[in-house]
Amino acid sequence: MFFRRARADRAFREAQRAGYELLQMHAEWPLPEPAPGVGTPAAPQTPTTDFLPLDLRVPSRQDVAGLMMRWLQPLVVDGEVRTCRECGAYRDWIVLCMRDDSVWLRCRAGHTTQEAGLDVAWYNRHSGPADRFHPTLEEGLRHLGH
């Protein structure tokens, strides 16, 4: 069992390295210079980093008020299981990561409290990719089953 996992981890790291090298190779390629039209001066080119059309772009972190994920198991922070101060719940949390880099916990009963022991780095390590964006908090909570 242990060797199988080590082998899988090694294969994953090698795939990450290969992907990184591929990205570096593409970043070093020079961009082709556009040919100016006949008889018209070339317009000054401004560099752009966006390569996707507007309708295919995912909203950036600045475009949303926050991110949320469901945390079903008990939440342990600094060796202590977090419980709701009002109802005593200790599992089935909604973890909210706000734009101001604060992390909040919301229990099943709807009680919300800021969690100083968690930060954006913790949220990013434990959350998966965003699968959907919701216009309101209530719609996001409904999507996550709360």
Topology:
Layout: H1 2-28, E1 66-71, E2 76-77, E3 80-81, E4 93-98, E5 103-106, E6 112-114, H2 120-126, H3 137-143
Output the number of helix runs. Answer: 3
Shape: extended
- Fraction of helical residues: 25-40%
Point out poorly predicted stretches: none
In percent terms, what proportion of residues is strand? 15-25%
Using the CA coordinates, give the radius of gyration: 23 Å
Number of separate strands: 6
Main beta-sheet strand count, sense and barrel state: 4 strands, antiparallel
Terminal Cα span? 37 Å
SSE sequence, one letter per element: HEEEEEEHH
Integer average pLDDT: 77
Strand order of the largest sheet: 1-4-5-6
Which structural class do the helices and strands define?
alpha+beta
Describe this structure in words.
With 146 residues, the chain is an alpha+beta fold. The chain has a domain at 56-143. It is built from three helices and six strands. The longest helix has 27 residues, at 2-28. The radius of gyration is 23 Å and the shape is extended.
Tag the structure with descriptive keywords.
single chain; 146 residues; alpha+beta; four-stranded antiparallel sheet; two-stranded antiparallel sheet; 3 helices; 28% helix; extended
